[in-house]
Design brief:
The complex is a heterodimer of chains A (about 90) and B (about 675). By secondary structure, chain A is mostly helical. In chain A, about 70% of the residues lie in helices and about 0% in strands. Among the domains of chain B are: about 170 residues, no CATH class; about 140 residues, no CATH class; about 100 residues, Tick-borne Encephalitis virus Glycoprotein, domain 1 (Sandwich). The chains are: A mainly alpha (about 90), B alpha+beta (about 675). At the A-B interface, helix 1, helix 2 and helix 3 of A face helix 1, helix 2, helix 16 and helix 17 of B.
């Protein structure tokens, strides 16, 4: 009985693990969900938004000089634009 | 049958971990090995699926062990060693992690849970890192599963099952000890994921900001679990061991403190990387070091190389852990060295008076404390290796070195948030430091006027006042800015401020929690009063502002335990505060005994009584302590929890946009 359970477990694990390798060749059958955009550009955009909000607060409370504020704002806006371009379809 | 199934589950899990490691390595380096690009995602998906199956098999093994413990199946050697008839069911469950084998199985199980969550998250956000993360997690799992199958197997059967088990060490039969180890494990094991992310980032070309930001979220969770684990351990030590303290620089406590210190340093240095794109080499090194210390801590707890009140006994695990630690550190730091130039920052520190300088100094001090703790902890082993004699440095060494460094950290906790990035002007320094500085000075003068003469305590409380002033000032300024721009009411502005800057203000709340903890430690260390007295029934003793009357001894038996109770009554300034019994529990089956302390806690102080001994004539020897501000330590833990929870709440996500991926591009999923 124990041997049967073990054999079943081993077989189930093997089928589950090896299934992606047995799938048909090509991206559509690769085991990865095609058509779904990785979320990194969105996550990057959220991170940039957070950084911009923090920068605004630092600027308003005098923690960043005017020059640094302009420099950092330009940098973050550049990153936001890049994240926006990525999320519009270019592969990661 | 169940033992066989448990053994099989762990062996099959080990095979799957090895497969995942190999498939992830091959998948990640497909091009280098000449493997078709089409095979790459299939291999990585297959490796990730192997981790899912591995987790399921580990869960099955854990379920079998828990079932055996709850059923008190004495055919299992592990059950015999950790359960006995009459032990409460709850402790039959906690026996799962009270022994070496069970605790390693729990470790592997937690690692699998974290791994699946990380793989799922990284597959969505940074698929490029997936092979590396799967490979590292599979590598760590392989080590622990090897230990569970070959070195300390949990499914050993007893050839002649006894009618009853030995039960758990009575000191572990306490609710705080029930949650202390798993919370610490959540922290220790949690450090594997940031390590895996950083290693995967380095393997794929360098720890870019995205990878380190991903690692930060996991590090924050691990840090929080370590904080709570340390706090629960301190509480257990305070209420169970009966010595009147909560921290003894025990090697096992230190084992958890070291990765906590390094991960705290990381959580600060990553802010500099985010804002100034600096310290990348340092930041990734801290992640690697924190992971290494988590394995080192496990080695300390399980090798028996150092004696501790709550480590596991002598075991053959030490060599394996040291070998794994050496291998993983050489590989990871080798990888950091390989990418060293790519991690170099273009920016440098502009001024010593800047926020990044304060954070950098804070990092150096955290590392200095961690090194001190490391040195003091391993000193007995080092001294034995060099001189042949084992020498302990003891708490005075730690207190003398760590206390001044702790004061410097406290100062930096106040200074850091007030300094601007890059460079501070004289005007901004005056503007920022005036109010909090005044709070600190006024507090110091007030304490001196009230008769406090201990200079260290006055300094610590004054600095605490300064730091509290900086936190209040930061909140007040943020609210003022929001109100000026949006015209919101103060409560709404405060809520919006915290919600929109969760990491920053969650961090400030954590600072308040640490501040409470620091005040509690200072008060209870500097102003504790202690008396050891032998009283006859009806006699009373004065301790601090309390009077404690001893009314006699009571004896009773409770499930194989003789309970001796000293009936006490506490008074303060003539006011009857009620009964305050102190007990000793003598276990009739062995030599063990435990202490139930008499405890009366207020915000001001704790009245703490231990029954040390008694005579046949009914005299009782009592240890009485008045420990000021101990409740502040536990309150600090609650405040820290609130701050960490705010900081850990995920950012608001923009609406999900589904767009078609161009043909040939690959994206993750299907796990």
């Amino acid at each position: 009985m124990t041997g049967v359970v073990m054999a079943l477990l081993a077989a189930a694990a093997a089928v589950w693990v090896l299934a992606p390798l047995r799938a048909a060749a090509g991206p559509a059958g690769s085991g990865f969900r095609a058509g779904e955009q990785p979320e990194w550009p969105r996550a990057a955009r959220v991170a940039v938004d957070d950084a911009l909000r923090d920068l605004e607060l630092d600027h308003a409370t005098g923690k960043v000089s005017e020059d640094d504020y302009r420099l950092l704002r330009a940098r973050y806006e550049g990153q936001a634009a890049e994240a926006g371009r990525s999320s519009r379809g270019s592969p990661v | 049958m169940l033992a066989d199934l448990g053994r099989f589950s762990l062996l099959a899990a080990l095979v799957l971990a090895l497969y995942a490691l190999a498939a992830a390595a091959l998948g990640g380096r497909a091009r280098a090995y000449g493997v078709s690009q089409n095979v790459l995602p299939k291999l990585v998906t297959s490796a990730a699926r192997a981790l899912v199956a591995m987790a399921a098999l580990e869960a099955l093994a854990a379920g079998i062990l828990i079932f055996a413990l709850v059923r008190r199946d004495y055919t299992f050697a592990y059950v015999v060693a950790h359960v006995r008839d009459g032990q409460a069911l709850g402790y039959d469950l906690t026996a799962f992690w009270s022994g070496m084998e069970g605790s390693l199985l729990l470790w592997a199980l937690i690692l699998s849970g974290y791994t699946l969550a990380a793989v799922r998250s990284i597959a969505r956000t940074r698929p490029r890192l997936l092979p590396g993360v799967v490979g590292v997690c599979a590598g760590v799992a392989t080590f622990f599963l090897f230990m569970l199958t070959a070195v300390t197997p949990p499914f050993v059967t007893a050839p002649f099952p006894p009618p009853d088990g030995q039960g758990m060490n009575p000191l572990l039969l306490n609710p705080w000890m029930a949650i202390h180890p798993p919370t610490l494990y959540l922290g220790f094991v949690g450090l594997t994921i940031p390590f895996a992310i950083v290693v995967a980032s380095l393997l794929t070309g360098g720890a870019d900001e995205g990878g380190v930001l991903l690692a930060r979220r996991w590090m924050l969770w691990a840090w929080y679990c370590l904080s709570m684990g340390l706090m629960f351990g301190a509480k257990w030590s305070y209420v169970v061991l009966g010595w009147g303290g909560y921290w003894a620089w025990d090697p096992v406590e230190n084992a958890a403190l070291m990765p906590w210190l390094v991960s705290t340093a990381f959580l600060h240095s990553v802010l500099i990387q985010e804002r100034r794109a600096m310290l990348q080499q340092w930041t990734v090194s801290l992640v690697v070091l924190a992971f290494g210390l988590s394995i080192f801590g496990t080695f300390l707890t399980r090798s028996g190389v150092l004696s501790s009140v709550h480590s596991f006994t002598q075991s053959p695990l030490g060599g394996y852990f040291l070998g794994f630690l050496a291998l993983s550190m050489v590989a990871a730091f080798g990888l950091v060295a390989w990418r060293w130039e790519g991690l170099r920052s273009e920016h440098t520190l502009d001024s010593a008076l800047s926020r990044e300088s304060a954070f950098l100094l804070n990092n150096v001090v955290f590392l200095a404390v961690a090194f001190t703790v490391f040195l003091g902890t391993v000193f007995p082993v080092l001294s034995e290796a060099v001189t042949g004699r084992r020498m302990n440095v003891g708490p005075p060494f730690f207190d003398h070195v760590v206390t001044p460094l702790g004061v410097v950290l406290l100062l930096l906790m106040g200074v850091g948030p007030l300094l601007p990035w890059r460079r501070a002007s004289t005007a901004s320094l005056r503007n920022n430091f005036l109010a909090p500085g005044a709070v600190g000075i006024i507090l110091a003068l007030g304490l001196l006027a009230a008769g406090m003469r201990a200079p260290g305590a006055v300094l610590a409380f004054a600095l605490s006042g300064f730091v509290a002033g900086t936190v209040v000032l930061e909140f007040a300024r943020g609210v003022r800015v929001r109100r000026a721009h949006g015209g919101e009411g103060p409560v709404r502005a405060l809520a919006a401020l915290v919600l929109q800057h969760r990491r920053r203000y969650g961090g400030y709340i954590v600072h308040l929690g640490i501040l409470l903890l620091f005040c509690g430690v200072t008060g209870s260390s500097v102003f504790s009063t202690q008396r050891l007295v032998t009283l006859r029934p009806g006699e009373a003793v004065e301790v601090g502002e309390y009077r404690v009357r001893y009314d006699g001894l009571r004896q009773s038996t409770r499930s194989g335990t003789l309970v001796v109770t000293a009936a006490l009554r506490a008074f303060s300034g003539g006011r009857d505060l009620g009964p305050l019994d102190a007990r000793r529990n003598l276990f009739l089956t062995g030599q063990d005994s435990t202490t139930d302390i008499g405890l009366r806690s207020t915000l001001r102080d704790d009245l703490y009584v231990t029954l040390v001994g008694w005579t046949a004539g009914g005299d009782a020897t009592l240890r009485l302590l008045v420990n000021p501000l101990v409740v502040w330590i536990w309150a600090g833990g609650l405040v820290l929890t609130a701050g960490a929870a705010i900081a850990m709440v995920p950012e608001r996500r923009p609406a999900r946009v589904r767009e078609a991926v161009p043909a040939g591009a690959w994206s993750p999923g299907g796990l």
